[in-house]
Specification:
- The chain is an alpha/beta fold and about 500 residues long.
- About 35% of the residues lie in helices and about 20% in strands.
- The protein folds into two domains: about 5-315, Rossmann fold; about 340-490, 2-Layer Sandwich (Alpha-D-Glucose-1,6-Bisphosphate, Chain A, domain 4), CATH 3.30.530.20.
- The strands form five sheets. A seven-stranded parallel β-sheet has the order 3-2-1-4-5-6-11, sandwiched between helices. It has a six-stranded antiparallel β-sheet with strand order 14-19-18-17-16-15. A two-stranded parallel sheet has the order 7-10.
- The longest helix is centred in the last third of the chain and has 32 residues, at about 460-490.
- The termini are far apart.
- Residues about 320-325 and about 330-335 have low confidence and may be disordered.
Length: about 500
C-alpha cells in the first residue's frame, strides 16, 4: 500500500503536468524521484532541491529509476515526434511496465484521455485518443496495478489546449470552423487534475481501475470560445461552421494562428471530432472535493498569465526530436560549420551582461529587424514549425529546456554562457549563443567581452544555399542584436 512517506517516481517531470505534480506530491508528504533525459531542465524548478533526479529515457534502461520506488506516475507522450509516434508510445509504455514489474512497484498512475472507444460508437477515436487508450492497455497488461485517469480538455495557464483556445479567440474575430465546433466536451481545471492524481495514490479502491475525470460543465467548443471571449473582455466572436472543412485542413490554420506547431496541432485538432465527456463519475465518490467550473478555470488561467505566474507550459518539452548535432555537442563528428561571430566590449559586470542575454526574445523582441524575425517565424509556421508565437514562459527568468520563440535553451552557464538551439524548420542545425568573458577594469569600471555566435551546420547543398541566401539579412539583424544587448547591459543597475 502506498502511503505518505512512500517514494514515487515521476516521469515527464519537465512537462506541463509533471512539472506541477512534483510540488503537489512533495506537499502531500511523498518522497519524489524524477526521471529526466536532461536533468538540467529541472534546475529552475522551485522543488529541485527536494527531489532525486535520475538521468534516463523512458525508452531506455529504467533499472536505476524504478529501484526502490513504490509508485510511478506515467506522464510522458511522443505526440508530434515523427510519423511513428503512436508506436513509440506503446513501446515506451511496455518498457516501463516491465521495469516496474521487475522492481516490485505497487502502483502505476497514468493520465490518459477521455473518449468513447466502445464498439458501435458513432465516431471512431482519433489517432491521438486511440494511442492514449492503447498506452493504458499496455501498462495494465502486467502484474502492477494501474490507475488510469482519463481527462478531457485541460484548462490552465500554459496548457496546449488553453493556448490553442486563447490564440484562436484573440486573433480571429471571425472564425470559419469545421463541424467539430459543436462537439460536446467536459473541460477540467488543471488544479483538479493535479488533485485527482495525488488523491488516487492513497485510495486503494482506485487501483486497477479506469477513472474518468472532468469538470462540472458539459459544453461545446463554440460555447468555450464564447465564454473565453467574455472572460478576456473581447467582443463577441463570429463562428461559422463549414461541414466540408476537415480536421486536417483546420489543423493547418490552427498551426498558423496559434503557437502550436503543425505536428502537435494536427493530432489535437483531429481529436476534437470525438465527444469527450464523463460517463462514469465514480471518481467523485472515491476522491471527493470541489471542482472548478469552466469559467472559473479560464478566469484563473488569465490571472496567472497576467501575473506572470505560469510555472509550466506545453512548450516546456520539445514536440519534435532535435535534428542533429552541432559543434558544441560532445559527440559532434565534424562537417561544415558556418558562423556569424560578433564581439563587443561591454562596460558592465559579467553577471549583468549574462542577465541581460537571459531576457532576449518574447515580448522584448530581438532588438533589431523584428519584422524580419516575425517574417521568418511566419514562414516557419507555413512549413509546420513552431514560429514565433510560443514566446517565453517568463520575461525575466530562463531555464534549460525553456522555449524562446522558435529557439530552445540548450545550455546556461551562470555569468558566462547562454546557448539557444533552433527548432524551426531548417536544412541543417542552428544555434545562437552569447559568451561573456571578464576583462580587467578600466577607468570607467568593470568590463567584459560579449561574443555573439550564430552557428549553422548545413545539411547538403540546400543547407549551404539557405545560409548564404539569408546571409544578407544577418547584416541587419545580428549587429543590432548584440548592440542592443550591450546597450541594455550598460544601462542596467548593478
Amino acid at each position: 500500500m502506498v502511503t505518505a512517506g512512500s517514494r514515487v517516481l515521476v516521469t515527464g517531470a519537465s512537462g506541463y503536468i509533471g512539472g506541477r505534480l512534483v510540488g503537489e506530491l512533495i506537499a502531500a508528504g511523498y518522497q519524489v524521484r524524477c526521471l529526466a533525459r536532461t536533468p538540467a531542465k529541472l534546475d529552475a524548478a522551485a522543488w529541485r532541491a527536494d527531489v532525486d533526479v535520475v538521468q534516463g529515457d523512458i525508452e531506455g534502461d529504467l533499472t536505476a529509476a524504478v529501484d526502490g520506488v513504490d509508485a510511478i506516475y506515467y506522464l510522458v507522450h511522443s505526440i508530434g515526434e515523427g510519423e511513428d509516434w503512436s508506436e513509440r508510445e506503446a513501446a515506451a509504455a511496455a518498457n516501463l511496465r516491465d521495469a516496474a514489474a521487475a522492481a516490485g512497484v505497487d502502483r502505476i498512475i497514468y493520465l490518459g484521455g477521455l473518449g468513447n472507444d466502445e464498439t458501435g460508437s458513432d465516431v471512431r477515436l482519433s489517432r491521438h485518443l486511440e494511442s492514449r487508450h492503447r498506452v493504458g492497455e499496455v501498462l495494465a497488461d502486467g502484474p502492477v496495478d494501474v490507475t488510469e485517469l482519463r481527462a478531457a480538455v485541460i484548462i490552465g495557464s500554459g496548457s496546449a489546449s488553453f493556448e490553442m483556445l486563447r490564440y484562436l479567440v484573440e486573433v480571429l474575430p471571425v472564425m470559419v470552423t469545421p463541424k467539430w465546433v459543436d462537439t460536446r466536451c467536459q473541460p477540467i481545471a488543471v488544479r483538479d487534475v493535479l488533485r485527482y492524481l495525488v488523491d488516487v495514490l492513497s485510495v486503494p479502491e482506485t487501483a486497477g481501475r479506469i477513472l474518468e475525470i472532468g469538470g462540472p460543465d458539459v459544453i461545446t467548443y463554440r460555447q468555450m470560445m464564447a465564454i473565453y471571449a467574455d472572460a478576456a473582455g473581447l467582443r463577441k466572436r463570429v463562428i461559422i461552421p463549414l461541414p466540408v472543412l476537415t480536421p486536417r485542413l483546420s489543423s493547418l490554420w490552427v498551426g498558423l494562428v496559434t503557437p502550436l506547431p503543425r505536428a502537435l496541432a494536427r493530432p489535437l485538432v483531429s481529436s476534437l471530432v470525438n465527444e469527450v465527456i464523463v460517463h462514469d463519475d465514480a471518481i467523485l465518490d472515491l476522491c471527493p472535493g470541489p471542482r472548478l467550473g469552466y469559467r472559473e478555470s479560464v478566469d484563473l488561467a488569465l490571472r496567472r498569465v497576467a501575473e506572470r505566474d505560469v510555472t509550466t507550459r506545453w512548450s516546456g518539452a520539445s514536440t519534435e526530436a532535435v535534428a542533429g548535432p552541432i559543434p558544441t555537442d560532445p559527440d559532434w563528428a565534424g562537417g561544415a560549420v558556418l558562423q556569424d561571430v560578433r564581439e563587443r566590449v561591454v562596460h558592465a559586470t559579467p553577471e549583468v551582461v549574462h542577465r541581460t542575454t537571459l531576457g532576449v526574445g518574447g515580448t522584448r523582441g530581438w532588438y533589431s529587424g523584428d519584422w524580419l524575425w516575425d517574417l521568418r517565424g511566419f514562414l516557419d509556421k507555413l512549413a509546420g514549425g513552431p514560429g514565433m508565437r510560443r514566446g517565453r514562459r517568463d520575461p525575466d527568468r530562463l531555464g534549460v529546456g525553456d522555449a524562446v520563440d522558435f529557439w530552445r535553451v540548450e545550455t546556461i552557464e551562470p555569468d558566462r554562457l547562454l546557448r539557444l538551439r533552433a527548432e524551426m524548420r531548417l536544412p541543417g542545425v542552428a544555434a545562437l549563443e552569447w559568451e561573456v568573458e571578464p576583462l580587467p577594469d578600466d577607468a570607467d569600471g568593470p568590463r567584459c567581452r560579449l561574443t555573439q555566435r550564430a552557428t549553422f551546420v548545413p545539411r547538403g547543398l540546400w543547407g549551404r544555399a539557405y545560409w548564404y541566401g539569408v546571409a544578407p539579412f544577418h547584416v541587419f539583424v545580428f549587429p543590432g542584436l548584440i548592440d542592443g544587448l550591450t546597450r541594455d547591459a550598460e544601462a542596467a543597475p548593478t
